[in-house]
Amino acid sequence: MAFRLLSRILRASQKSGLSVSSFSKLRVSSHYLMNACRLSSSAPKPQKETINVTFLLRDGEKQEVQAKVGDNLLDIIIEHDVDIDGFGACEGTLACSTCHLIFKQSDFDKIPDKPTDEELDMLDLAYGLTDTSRLGCQVVLTKDMDGLEVTVPTGVADARGGPL
Ligand code: FES
Question: Signal sequence: where (predicted)?
Answer without folding.
Answer: none
